[in-house]
Design a protein that fits this description.
10 helices; alpha/beta; eight-stranded parallel beta sheet; 35% helix; binds 4-nitrophenyl 6-deoxy-alpha-L-galactopyranoside
């Protein structure tokens, strides 16, 4: 609806969080840095057997993940919403789900539901909460063929699995401001069914363009690009701190905080002044803590926004 769009559009600047089992690996497999590909996709880029990758859950214990602290940081940065990964391509769920044991509640020592923690902290902090959900799932047995991106087609079983998880996510965690579907090769029928499911459960939830087949409420642009034609359409640009990864990598060369803050601030101003929403990503460590460099960048942008009356 127009109201839902207006409300979403007001977010302008949001935090994106890539956090999952891959954060525990931090871009390293068997002692060596994996330099090819995004670190959140290390399972595919390092060719790790699913069972071995899954064993990471046994030691994934993010005792320093503090959802309220992350909300405070987002607010200090001038952000009005947070979008977090509920499930990336690896298929590991960061929420308690009845659909699989491969989730942070059943498979890790801490028995955590990070989506619940984040949803409740956003509510307490008075900011909007959105979720990222991968339509690719390297863990679900019926998500064949398991290639590096296994999205050549989505089997009926995988589609049902997705619908069950989306239903849980839109039922158990309060209002979801946006559902950031990512990268699947859905049939038009599958995309349509998911789009309708989301709106049946939460009419105001904005759906991202990567659901495919023109079933969306807003389109997602690559960094520094704009939609063609009308700028009245709802659109968003997602940006990572570093070009090469969205999730934490221990060996990342980060450089200068000020330079990075100015680079991202320029993108933010560029996007927002053209009518888009800007999503700036952080990748917490496996212990759940925010990388100090990323925290400092966000704080510096926040100081600029406050000084210029924009936050
Ligand atoms: C996808 C994911 O594969 C990736 O791991 C990450 O989660 C990112 C946010 O989304 O990758 C893309 C897909 C499309 C673009 C950028 C990254 N794009 O169009 O600019």
């Amino acid at each position: 609806s127009k109201e839902a769009f207006e409300k979403w559009h007001q977010n302008k600047y949001s935090m994106f969080i890539h956090f999952g089992l891959y954060s525990e690996l931090g871009g390293v497999w068997e002692g060596s840095p994996v330099t090819r590909g995004y670190s959140e996709q290390i399972q595919s880029f390092a060719g790790i057997f699913s069972d071995w990758y899954g064993d990471t859950a046994l030691r994934f214990n993010p005792t320093l993940f503090d959802a309220d602290a992350i909300v405070s940081l987002a607010k200090e940065a001038g952000m009005r919403s947070i979008i977090i990964t509920t499930k990336h391509h690896d298929g590991f769920c960061m929420f308690r789900t009845a659909t699989t044991d491969y989730n942070s509640y059943d498979a890790t020592p801490g028995k955590r539901d990070f989506i619940k923690e984040m949803a409740e902290a956003c509510k307490r902090g008075g900011i909007n909460f959105g979720i990222y959900f991968s339509l690719i799932d390297w863990h679900f047995p019926q998500a064949y063929p398991i290639s590096s991106h296994n999205c050549d087609f989505i089997t009926p079983q995988h589609h049902e699995f997705t619908k069950a998880q989306v239903t849980e996510l839109l039922t158990n965690y309060g209002p979801i401001s946006e559902l950031w579907f990512d990268m699947g090769s859905n049939t038009p029928e599958q995309s349509k069914e998911l789009y309708q499911l989301v709106h049946r459960l939460q009419p105001d939830c904005m759906v991202s363009g990567r659901l495919g087949n023109d079933q969306y409420d807003f389109s997602v642009m690559a960094d520094n690009t704009y939609p063609e034609g009308s700028l009245q359409t709802a659109w968003q640009t997602a940006a990572s701190m570093f070009d090469e990864t969205w999730s934490y990598r221990s060996w990342q060369k980060r450089g200068d905080v000020h330079t990075k803050a100015m680079e991202k601030l320029r993108s933010l101003i560029n996007v927002v002044s053209h009518g888009g929403n800007f999503l700036l990503n952080i990748g917490p460590k496996g212990d759940g803590s925010v990388v100090p460099f990323e925290r400092e960048v966000l704080k510096e942008i926040g100081i600029w926004l406050k000084k210029n009356g924009e936050a």
